[in-house]
C-alpha cells in the first residue's frame, strides 16, 4: 500500500512541478538548533540528552565554588559516566563529585518528571522543583511546575566502583512508558511538521567539531569512525553532537528529507562509514543532501582555522585553493558509496554569498560532475553604513529605523545572490540551493551588545519583520528556474532573542503563544509554505489562528476536531497538495478516520463562510 501511495505522490509531484506557480517556487526547510542545556528547542523527551557536560565540585569545601575545575582529571567509562564517585584527585585537598546543569528551563513542560538510572549510588538535585521523592532504588520523581526562569542542577553524590551510576534518564511528564518507542517531544514534532526537510548542521555540532573550543585548532589528528557521537553517551550536548542514528530515525519516522554535514576532521574511513550508514539505513524515498563541514571560510569557526593551517600554510598553498582537496575528497567518497543511488543524494559545494571571488576559486577547482549544486546563504542584514547610523541613534533607535536599514541591506544582498547564480551556478550547469538564511540583524562587532539593542529585540516580534520576510521571499522566487522549487533552509528553528548574539529562532520557545507573543518570522514562513500546499483560494476569507482543538497529534487512527464547526468543510491534503480526505460537518465535534493514510505529514484545512484555519498533523504507523 505504501508503494502505491508513493507512486501516486510522485506522479502528483511531477504534475505540480510541470508548471510551478509563484506560490510553489520555494521549498522551505529548516536548520535544527544544536543541543545545549540552556536551549529552548527540545527535540527529545529525555532531557539528559541536552545536559551540560560534567563539571566538578569539591566535597566539604566551605568556599563551595560553582566548579572546582577537575572534570578533566577524573576517570570515566566509555559512555562518559565516572567510574566511581567520590574521586581523589592529585593536587586537590578535596575529593570530587560530578555535576550537570540545565541553566535555562523555559522550554520545559510543567508537570511530574521521572529520573531513572542504573547502578548503585546517590543523586541529588537543586533548583526550582517541588515534591522530590525517591520511589525506589533507581527511580526519582519530582514536580516541576514553574520551569520559566528556573534552573535545575543534578549531582552524582556517590557511585559504586563495582556498579557505577549510569544510563541516567530525565523524562518529561507522561513519557516514562513511551520514551524508548517515542523519543521525540510531540510539541516539537508538531511545530516541525510544517517543514519537508531539515538540516543537521547544529545537531552534529559541525562548527569546530571535535575541538575542545572554537580557538583550539592546532591539532592535526583525524578522528576515526569509533570516535563519533554514540547512542549511549550520557549527553549529546558535546563537541560531537547528536548520533547519526537519531538523525536517520527522525527522517524515516516522519518522512523528512535531510541535510548532513561531514566533520572536517573525519578520516577517510569515517567519511565512508558515515555515507554507508545513511545509504543503508535511510529509507529509499528519503532524499539526502551532503556537505563538507560548514562555512569553511568563516574565521570565527575552528574548521576554517584548521583547514587554513593544514591545507594552506603547511602545504605552502594559497587560500582558499588549499582547502579544496578536503572538499573534493569528501564528495568523492560519498559519490563512490552512493554510486548506484546518486538520485537519492545531492552533493553540494558551500560558497560565501558575499565573496564571489572566493566562491569562484573554490568551486571552479572542484572536479566537474563531482557536485550537484552550489550553496550560499540567503540572509539579509545591515550594511556597515546602516549599523553606523543605528549606533548613532543608540537607545533612541526605533523598530522603524531597524526596518529601514534592514531593507537597505536587503537590496545590497540581492546583488550577491544574483551574482552567485549568474557567474557560478548557471555557467557550471548546477543547481542553486541555500543552506541557511533569513534575517541576520546583528550589530558590529558581533558578540557585543549594540547600543540599539532594545529596538533590535522589538523588531523580532513586530509586523514589519513579517512584511520583510514576505518581500524577501518574493525576491528569492525570481531566482527559481525550471521544474523544481528553490530549496531554502531557514536558520533557525527555536531559539530565544539576543541583541548580542542574534535572534535566530523563528520561534522563541516551542510553546510560544503567538496571540500574546508574536512570531512574525514563523507566520511568514507558514504562509509561504501553506500558499503552495493548498489549492483553495482564500482571498475573501478572514483567517483565525488555532480556534479549533485538534487531537491527538501525532495520531495513527482517528483525529478529533472540536470547536464551532457549523457548516464547515474539513479537508486533509498530503505533502504534494492532493486532497486525501474530505468531510462536511455541522456540529461541535468531528471525528475523522485517518488510519488508512500512509505515515507522514498532512495539512488539515477547516473552512466555512466566516473563516479558514490551516493546521499540520502527523500520521504514524503504530
Q: What layout of secondary structure does this protein have?
A:
Blueprint: H1 2-18, E1 26-31, E2 55-58, E3 96-102, E4 111-118, E5 121-127, E6 130-136, E7 139-144, E8 152-159, E9 166-171, H2 186-192, E10 197-199, H3 244-253, E11 257-262, H4 268-281, E12 288-292, H5 302-313, H6 324-337, E13 345-350, H7 356-363, E14 373-375, E15 377-381, H8 384-393, H9 399-428, E16 431-432, E17 436-440, H10 453-458, H11 463-477, E18 486-490, H12 520-533, E19 542-543, E20 549-551, E21 558-562, E22 568-573, E23 579-585, E24 589-593, E25 600-607, E26 611-619
Parallel strand pairs: 1-10, 1-18, 10-11, 11-12, 12-13, 13-14, 14-16, 15-17, 19-26
Antiparallel strand pairs: 2-3, 3-8, 4-7, 4-9, 5-8, 6-7, 20-21, 21-24, 22-23, 22-25, 25-26
Helix pairs in contact: 4-6, 7-9, 8-9, 9-11, 11-12
Explain what the structure shows.
- With 622 residues, the protein is α/β, with parallel strands linked by helices.
- The protein has 12 helices and 26 strands.
- An 8-stranded parallel sheet has the order 16-14-13-12-11-10-1-18.
- Helix 7 (356-363) links the parallel strand 13 (345-350) and strand 14 (373-375).
- Helix 7 runs parallel beside helix 9.
- It is globular and about 70 Å long.
- The two termini are 16 Å apart.
Key terms:
alpha/beta; Immunoglobulin-like; TIM Barrel; five-stranded mixed sheet; single chain; disordered N terminus; 622 residues; 12 helices
